[in-house]
């Protein structure tokens, strides 16, 4: 179950589709739904503790609850329904190795880490593009890379290319206004997952400036594509990239991000350090590892 409806390009829908492929490859019959439907099921995998709360409460089979970023870093502190989902779940899936630390201690024995895998196209790189992939939402701090690019020196070749839909009129207007003011910023709007993958693979950098994430799939995609990452230092990104990753900047810090962008463009040793640090983490995000994690989890729930 996912709150994201068919045709949506949201992270929750992309995750549901990828998990359907992984579970089908393991021999299971899988149906994606936005609510609990009639029929016989052995297990329900529910994305989002709050939005799936009613269905989780009424299910009569084992529940695997997959925690989203808004679950972990907002809703479980505010929503009684989200907290009830945590108690009801038989297993809780988090998308990065530090995720269990953000849950109450008595629930941690139910937590399993399933890191998100990716299959990426072959890169074709030119110029020095930094790609941002994500819908224009406040949680994503979507214009941070554009603001950082504004202060780069005239000699810089860097351009910020942003893929992601505007979820409100005000965000659309803001993106269009930024393009008129900032020659280093190009907003392409919503694109297909395949187009987003190509953009990540072809970029010199991926920038993830989010204030809140459960474990962004774009990080996995960049790691598999060997595209270096600059990321805000939030718990999930530290969980995916490792605490010693050299490409972190403080949340919302435009000047710090600008320094990293310019350093990545001009300091070849620093750029190589980003590549090397990414290569160390890359094996964790291969599809075979994700399938194996699901195989182990579902074996725990078998009769």
Number of helices: 12
Specify the biggest β-sheet: 6 strands, parallel
Rg: 19 Å
Global structural class: alpha/beta
CATH architecture of the largest domain: 3-Layer(aba) Sandwich
Q: What are the secondary-structure elements, in order, as H or E?
A: HEHEHHEEEHEHEHEHEHEHHH
The CATH class of the largest domain, by name, is: Alpha Beta
CATH topology of the largest domain: Rossmann fold
Strand content: 5-15%
- State the helicity in percent bands: 40-55%
Q: Give the low-pLDDT segments.
A: none
Overall pLDDT level: 93
Distance between the termini: 22 Å
**What is the approximate shape?**
globular
Could you state the CATH homologous superfamily of the largest domain? Answer: Glycogen Phosphorylase B
- The overall strand count is 10
How many discrete domains? 2
Strand arrangement in the largest pleated sheet? 7-6-5-8-9-10
Supply the key terms.
single chain; 6-stranded parallel β-sheet; globular; alpha/beta; 13% strand; 2 domains; Rossmann fold; 303 residues; 4-stranded parallel β-sheet
Structure description:
- The protein is α/β, with parallel strands linked by helices.
- The protein has two domains: 11-116 and 286-301, no CATH class; 129-285, 3-Layer(aba) Sandwich (Rossmann fold), CATH 3.40.50.2000.
- 42% of the residues lie in helices and 13% in strands.
- It has twelve helices and ten strands.
- It has a six-stranded parallel beta sheet, sandwiched between helices. Strands 1-2-3-4 form a four-stranded parallel beta sheet, with helices on one face.
- Strand 9 (229-232), helix 9 (235-241) and strand 10 form a beta-alpha-beta unit.
- Helix 5 crosses helix 10.
- The model has no long low-confidence stretch (mean pLDDT 93).
